[in-house]
Amino acid sequence: MGERPRVVCLCGSVRFLAEFDAASLAETLAGRIVLSVGSHRQRDEDALAHLSSAERAAALERLGELHLRKIDLADEVLVVNPGGYVGESTRREIAYARQAGKPVRSLEPLSV
What we know:
4 strands, 45% helix
C-alpha cells in the first residue's frame, strides 16, 4: 500500500461555490483528499434561510468551528479567493492554519 495522500482543506467565501467545486475537482485529480464547505450547491445563508436569525447565527458559528476542525485534520490549506477576495472568516481560518503550522496556498496571491 502506498503513502497516504495529502489532505487539503479548502477555505474561502461561500459566494464562490463554482470555484470551490473546480478547486475540489482539481485537488482530487491531483491525488489529494479534499475537505471543503458543507455544500457546493448553495451558500450557507441560503441553506439556513428557514431558521430564525438567532438559530442561523448559532448554526453559522457551529459551521465555522467545524471548519477549524477540518483545518486540524488537513496537511495544508488552499484558499479559494477569486480576484484576491478574502473575507473576515477566511482571514481567521488562514491565521488559524498558520498558527498550527499548516502550509497555506491560494488561487490568487494573498495580502493577509
